[in-house]
Design goal:
The protein is of the alpha+beta class. 49% of the residues lie in helices and 12% in strands.
């Protein structure tokens, strides 16, 4: 390696001639290479600094480049001190200046030069020169032969697959090659090859030794790599090898560029009984697999949103495999190197897709905060997305463990000890840190846990290490702001204490920032609200107390004393030390007076309330003004909520319940209101103040029982499946009996939705809610299993479903609570048959089914959520298809494939689907497409969609079928639009073709004036036609009054739909201030739509407007356009010519009998004249809409003439009668994967008429 010292550079520059200096200056004056190394010339002796120092300061920016540094370094040392070296350097610099920006913009895959001893092993040479060789990997491309098959198979099996193209450097006398570039495509490698010849090869001839040539090439490539690395974005953390794999992933499966690869794994796919070794690619929306073995290629692409079952299997046929099941097919993958990691990632991606199907708002967005997060000891991940998803999984587990808000993100965790003051011991565990909380969980499960909100932290201090007490080594003290009880928490044995303190200081600074974390909960700015005269009510049991029972009051006091004693030792509120002692107190029951505070602390609702001050009041003020379906449903259920309690026999309780439910419906419109929420909210209001009841309801619906209270109660159905699995595992005999009776789903739904409040006495069910808020959703499964186990013997002998349901209902009503009768009292409580104390029931539940943890429930939920969501989607889609298939345009299979395309479009474009749960909508109305996607479908599926006028036809058909004029076609309208051009009978197709060339679908402004070569007669008739239309204003501007000029209508081009919509809006606004059924254009389109879709041959064709010559010319051009792309048969084109000539002659003959034709009383124009009698001047000779032509009758044809003439020509009749294979066209459409943002290649961007 040649070393360049700044002194040598200064000597060279100071010794060159003025001419060389001028040339050097000119070569650098346009350069902008400021990438790596700043040349220091301070070491040059003072005597030599003079002019060259000034010159270097002037050109310092150009000398920062490592590119030039390495170029000069490559000059042999003996030549450096020679004046001729300057010329060589100048040529190099000049070349670098010209090429530097090209290098930066080129996505060249230059690699660090590596020695290659066997250049031709497994590679084929495609191009070569004296110093470079371009090679292609055997088994790639169109190469054939046994060696290519073996190499391709080997590359597919091994996890380290080389790029298929590379460039080697060599010298004639050396046997050692250097790999300097690689690429996934031939195009990229050829660019690199051309660059070498343009910028490197000429320089190599100036060297004398081959060793110098090799060193120059190596330094050249390294300098280019250094330049490219400096130009890369720093927020891109994906490794180079991962980028290469990601590029290959997109090329293999032809997926859009915004589909991001998460990770890839080597595995085998079982195709039949033979495993095929290859690679699995996991992206955000797809699970893909590719294998290449002995010339046989296997490609599989599965969308996560289609997955029904994702499970680990270990059978005889598929040992130690991962099973992925979609509708109608199962896939098995095995031989994973990291099976657990792969399966966990697959579960996470499938769960994200399922949640998006439930709620479109749950789309995946990368968390860019990870790039700027202060972190340490974070394992390197292959991709940024993998790191993001891992962080999401850890945050989810963290939130579940400590019941934190769903927006909380885990920042990090570290091992430490916590000093527990109640027993003066140091408990080992782990400290967790997030944006708003410090949490601790002991290593021994359930020993102690702690939650400290950062908003309550006053100061974090380091504690000096004491040699006498090693347990306090590297300790910190966290002091809270509680002025009454200044609590301090001591954490010790923190390995990286300084970093933890730094991180805490950063988070505390953000927490104390008044502008940080301010949110109204919904993410939107709050509108101006009216402040109503209302106030939050205290717990209703204080306003409406029941009769005091001495024994119950005594037990309540005893419980209060126990709890207060516990608070004195372990603390109270959110930051109490949570141990097994408090679990025993909860099982025994929380006293009524403490329920609100304890429920708020255990459920996490206190955190939500503290971070959203004033939010509830704002919501109520808005909700009371809002008219909605949810509010109407709430009003109907208000008086059905706990009617036996005094509080809800009074307006005070009813008004409080209304405010809570309406406020939550406004906060979460995706849920709104669901029956059973009123019962839960009523019980919450009995024990809690109004605002606290609201936050408890919010936490319950969104965190503890997710998706329970939406329209389809998806969460409850998911938990039904979990109960079914748990029952099958623990009590298989009883499970079989209940399945036989068909009652398992019914009992679990009624139990879970109200957390047993609707099936148990309320005073007993609140004890279950105590445990529910403390331990989470696992409690309802433990209690349900315990109830079934206690009644197992009786249930096994039940003869039918009714007997079993009555048995369970009687048992549940016999669950009594003698300690809680003072709060809610059943009317017949003293007379009821007592089965079991609720405290005993809970003890049995925890004892017998304590192994059921929150983590187990979440795993089960993920498994069943996939199946439930897919079942709901399949049922909904089948309902939509069944409601459309009777129209007769497509078969069930064709509609199913069409619906799959529409669904795929929604998912791939990350669009929100239309509300599927709106009872006011028909199922087919929830699947809609806009015009941009419809024209793609039209071009792919319709035989009319291949010519130059395809987009114009698509736009007019779209407008005709858009019944409600909302800019979308639903599934029924899409099927009709495609079917009328592809599968309908010939008469219907011709009626559609005729109709879309009539006003108002085809306006005069959309027709180009005929050229001179078409004949002067046609041109003059066209001119007369335009003048006549402007005078009569019957077709083109029927909604416009004579006092106002007609609104110009834009042509149907690539933006035709938007133009038509804007035209509709303007027409509506001009028509008596409104747009309704009386609007002429709407009525006209409705009549034309009914005419086209009518299959009755006896339809009154006289009501259809006649077609004038200029419109007919446009129609017949469309016919020619359709056939030009489909047939080269001269017989067919001869038939088109003859039929067109015949229709022209019929139009001329029609002039002679113009006045003699019968007038149609039900014509469309008659309706228009009746509507506009006061404003429109009737200048038509008859009521059939034939315009006045100033003494000369107009040329026209009727729809009867058009149908008869075309159907009489056998080639045309055969074409319009032929049924297009829709399924084949759909499969072809899927395989092509069009670019959503542009039209098809066959469809031009402009319309030629």
């Amino acid at each position: 390696m040649y070393n360049l010292h700044p002194v040598n550079l200064a000597l060279i520059l100071s010794s060159r001639s003025p001419t060389n200096e001028d040339r050097f200056h000119r070569s650098l004056s346009g350069a902008d290479g400021d990438r790596c190394v700043l040349y220091r010339y301070s070491r040059v002796p003072e005597a030599r600094r003079g002019n060259i120092g000034n010159y270097l300061r002037y050109q310092r920016r150009a000398f920062r480049s490592a590119f030039y540094y390495h170029e000069f370094q490559s000059i042999p040392d003996p030549r450096r001190h020679h004046l001729a070296c300057v010329r060589h350097l100048l040529s190099i610099v000049r070349t670098g200046c010209a090429v530097i920006w090209f290098i930066l913009s080129l996505s060249a895959m230059w690699i660090k030069p590596e020695e290659v001893l066997l250049a031709n092993a497994l590679w084929e040479t495609e191009q070569s020169s004296v110093y470079f060789v371009l090679q292609r990997r055997k088994g790639h491309g169109k190469s054939k032969g046994l060696s290519s098959l073996l190499v391709g198979t080997m590359d597919s099996i091994f996890d380290t697959k080389p790029a298929p193209y590379r460039i080697l450097h060599q010298t004639p006398s050396s046997e050692v090659y250097y790999n300097i570039a690689c690429s996934m495509t031939r195009q990229e490698i050829e660019k690199d090859w051309e660059w070498l010849f343009s910028n490197v090869c000429e320089t190599l001839h100036s060297f004398d030794k081959e060793e110098d040539i090799t060193e120059f090439v190596i330094k050249k490539i390294e300098s280019v790599m250094a330049t490219n690395q400096e130009n890369q974005d720093f927020d891109d953390e994906d490794s180079k090898s991962f980028k290469i794999t990601s590029e290959k992933f997109h090329q293999l499966f032809n997926l859009p560029r915004d589909e991001k690869l998460v990770n890839y794994y080597s595995c085998s796919y079982w195709k039949g009984k033979i495993p095929r070794q290859g690679r699995m690619y996991l992206s955000v929306n797809y699970c893909c697999f590719h294998a290449y073995i002995l010339g046989l290629e296997t490609k599989i692409c599965i969308r996560w949103s289609d997955v029904i079952v994702l499970d680990k299997t270990n059978g005889v046929l598929f040992p130690d495999s991962i099973k992925i099941a979609v509708r109608g097919k199962e896939h098995y993958f095995s031989m994973f190197l990291r099976k657990a990691e792969t399966f966990n990632l697959m579960e996470q991606l499938a769960d994200l897709a399922a949640k998006r199907l439930i709620d479109d708002r749950r789309g995946f967005n990368e968390d860019k905060d990870l790039l700027s997060k202060l972190s340490k000891n974070v394992p390197k991940k292959p991709s940024f997305l993998k790191r993001d998803l891992d962080a999401r999984a850890h945050s989810e587990a963290y939130r579940l463990l400590f019941r934190l808000p769903h927006t909380e993100k885990l920042d990090g965790s570290i091992d430490c000890t916590l000093m527990t003051p109640y027993n003066k011991k140091h408990v080992s565990g782990r400290l967790f840190l997030s944006q708003h909380y410090i949490c601790f969980d002991s290593r021994v499960k359930g020993q102690v846990s702690l939650i400290i909100p950062l908003r309550d932290v006053k100061v974090v201090e380091k504690m000096e290490t004491s040699a006498s007490n090693p347990s306090l080594d590297k300790a910190i003290i966290i002091t809270t702001k509680n002025m009454i009880d200044k609590t301090a928490f001591l954490f010790a044995q923190i390995l990286d204490r300084d970093f933890l303190v730094q991180k805490l200081s950063e988070l505390l600074a953000r927490t104390n920032d008044p502008f940080f974390g301010k949110s109204n909960g919904s993410g939107d700015a709050q509108p101006q609200t009216v402040d109503f005269a209302w106030k939050c009510q205290p717990p209703l049991m204080t306003l409406f107390p029941l009769a005091v029972i001495p024994d119950v009051l005594k037990k309540q006091k005893e419980k209060e004393i126990k709890w207060e004693s516990h608070f004195n030792v372990f603390g109270r509120g959110i930051s109490m030390y949570r141990t097994t002692d408090i679990s025993k107190l909860v099982l025994d029951g929380i006293p009524d007076s403490l329920r609100m505070d304890i429920w708020m602390a255990f459920s996490g609702a206190a955190n939500e309330k503290a971070t959203h001050p004033g939010y509830y009041k704002s919501l109520v003020n808005q909700a009371l003004l809002k008219q909605s379906t949810a509010n109407d449903e709430i009003e109907r259920d208000l008086h059905r909520s706990l009617p036996e309690h005094l509080a809800f026999q009074n307006d005070t309780g009813i008004d409080a319940l209304r405010r809570v439910l309406c406020a939550y419906a406004l906060k979460n419109p995706n849920i709104g209101y669901c029956q059973a929420m009123n019962i839960v909210a009523s019980v919450l209001l009995i024990y809690c103040a109004e605002e606290e009841a609201f936050w408890l309801l919010s936490t319950l619906c969104e965190n503890l029982l997710p998706d329970y209270y939406n329209t389809k109660v998806v969460g409850a159905v998911v938990d039904q499946g979990i109960l079914d699995d748990l029952l099958s595992e623990n009590m298989p005999t009883l499970h079989a009996k209940l399945v036989k009776l068909g009652m398992l789903n019914m009992i679990s739904l009624s139990w879970f939705l109200t957390i047993f409040l609707s099936v148990m006495p309320y005073e007993s069910a609140v004890n279950v809610i105590d445990c529910f808020f403390y331990d989470g959703a696992k409690v309802i499964f433990q209690v349900a299993l315990t109830i079934l186990k206690l009644n197992q013997e009786e249930l096994l002998i039940c003869r039918d479903e009714g007997e079993a349901m009555q048995l369970l209902a009687d048992y549940l009503m016999g669950v009594h609570n003698d300690d809680g009768r003072g709060a809610i009292r059943n009317k017949s409580y003293d007379d009821q048959q007592r089965k079991i104390r609720v405290q005993d029931l809970l003890y049995k539940a925890y004892t017998n089914f304590g192994s059921i943890s929150t983590g187990v429930i979440e795993k089960f939920r993920l498994k069943h959520r996939l199946k439930v969501v897919q079942d709901l989607e399949a049922n909904f889609e089948n309902n939509a298809i069944r409601s459309v298939v009777n129209d007769g345009y497509m078969t069930f299979a064709e509609l199913q494939s069409l619906l799959n395309i529409i669904r795929e479009e929604y998912l791939s474009q990350k669009k929100m689907m239309f509300e599927k749960n709106d009872p006011a909508l028909q199922p087919y109305e929830c699947f809609k497409v806009d015009f941009d996607f419809f024209k793609l479908l039209f071009a792919a599926l319709s035989p009319w969609g291949k010519g130059d006028q395809a987009e114009s036809l698509a736009a007019r058909i779209f407008t005709l079928m858009d019944k409600n004029r909302d800019g979308y076609l639903n599934l029924r309208e899409i099927a009709a639009a495609i079917g009328l051009t592809s599968t309908a009978d010939a008469a219907q197709r011709l009626k559609l073709l005729y109709t879309v060339h009539l006003p108002p679908l085809l306006l005069s402004t959309d027709i180009e004036s005929p050229k001179n070569e078409s004949g002067t007669e046609i041109a003059s008739e066209a001119t007369d036609f335009f003048e006549t239309v402007e005078q009569t204003a019957i077709f083109d501007s029927l909604c416009t009054t004579p006092e106002e000029p007609s609104t110009p209508t834009p042509s149907y081009n690539s933006q035709s739909l938007d133009s038509q919509i804007s035209m509709d809006g303007s027409l509506c606004s001009q028509n008596n201030g409104g747009c309704g059924e009386s609007n002429w254009e709407v009525r006209s389109l409705t009549s034309l739509r009914n005419f086209v879709q009518s299959k009755d041959s006896k339809t009154n064709l006289k009501s259809v407007p006649k077609m004038t010559q200029l419109y007919f010319i446009s129609l017949w051009k469309a016919v020619y356009d359709i056939f030009q792309t489909l047939s080269d048969d001269q017989v067919t084109f001869h038939a088109i010519t003859e039929t067109g000539t015949l229709l022209f002659e019929l139009g001329d003959v029609g002039k002679q009998f113009f006045v003699k034709r019968d007038e149609s009383e039900d014509s469309l124009v008659s309706a228009a004249a009746a509507y506009n009698t006061a404003t429109l001047v009737d200048t038509s000779p008859d009521k059939n809409g034939n315009p006045n032509t100033k003494g000369e009758f107009q040329w026209y044809i009727t729809v009867e003439q058009f149908l008869a003439s075309v159907l009489n020509a056998q080639p045309l009749a055969d074409f319009f009668s032929k049924r297009v294979p829709i399924l084949e066209s759909i499969e072809h459409f899927k395989s092509r994967r069009y670019n959503r943002l542009h039209s098809l290649t066959e469809v031009p961007s402009t319309i030629k008429v």
